[in-house]
Amino acid sequence: MKVAIIPARGGSKRIPRKNIKSFCGKPMIAWSIQAAQVSDCFDQVIVSTDDDEIAEVARACGADVPFKRPAELSDDYTGTIPVVAHAIDWMSTNITPVEHACCLYATAPFLQAEDLRRGFDVLEQSGADYAFSVTSYASPIQRAIRITADQRVEMFNPERFNTRSQDLEEAFHDAGQFYWGRATAWLAAKPLFSHDAVPVLLPSHRVQDIDTEEDWVRAELMFKVINQSRGK
């Protein structure tokens, strides 16, 4: 069984009710559910939540909510892996054994079905435990600076001050959209950022963290432009 698992906790603080707030005409979580459904990758699309309103919205969008996430997995400090492992264990015990699970973030409106299909193909072809979305940094991280306590500037890597940008190694970061994994890896709590994972590269214009109201406005503008260019 291949299952999509969308964690959606009710306690978002920086943007209240972020998971179900309207984003370009739909509840935010609806975009992740829709991408999972259109991809045809999954036998079931489920939402793991501790929140009754989120559960109701998720069901209205076509996802299943077969259980209520326990309180001990719903605080500010619980990571993604134990939440996904709990869902896999519940499904395997109560429905049917899970072989592959893909964690989709509820706040990833730029997620596309073809990327999910490509991610599963990469996972299978590589033999790795995980395959997840990544994108490149816009600027060389070796030339990053910090602002000190006395409001001055210093480089993280001052030895790179005179190195040309084109001579620096390209760096990548987690795109925060999806994480394919073998059920055995999730259940064993294997780390995602390791040699056992392979990247699924996304263009940077389709990657946007949404943590503040400013992020939200920028993401809606980007979303509209991207969909206009795709003829949607």
TrEMBL record:
<dbReference type="InterPro" id="IPR020039">
    <property type="entry name" value="PseF"/>
</dbReference>
<keyword id="KW-0548">Nucleotidyltransferase</keyword>
<dbReference type="GO" id="GO:0008781">
    <property type="term" value="F:N-acylneuraminate cytidylyltransferase activity"/>
</dbReference>
<keyword id="KW-0808">Transferase</keyword>
<dbReference type="InterPro" id="IPR029044">
    <property type="entry name" value="Nucleotide-diphossugar_trans"/>
</dbReference>
<dbReference type="InterPro" id="IPR050793">
    <property type="entry name" value="CMP-NeuNAc_synthase"/>
</dbReference>
<dbReference type="InterPro" id="IPR003329">
    <property type="entry name" value="Cytidylyl_trans"/>
</dbReference>
<protein>
    <submittedName>
        <fullName>N-acylneuraminate cytidylyltransferase</fullName>
    </submittedName>
</protein>
<dbReference type="Pfam" id="PF02348">
    <property type="entry name" value="CTP_transf_3"/>
</dbReference>
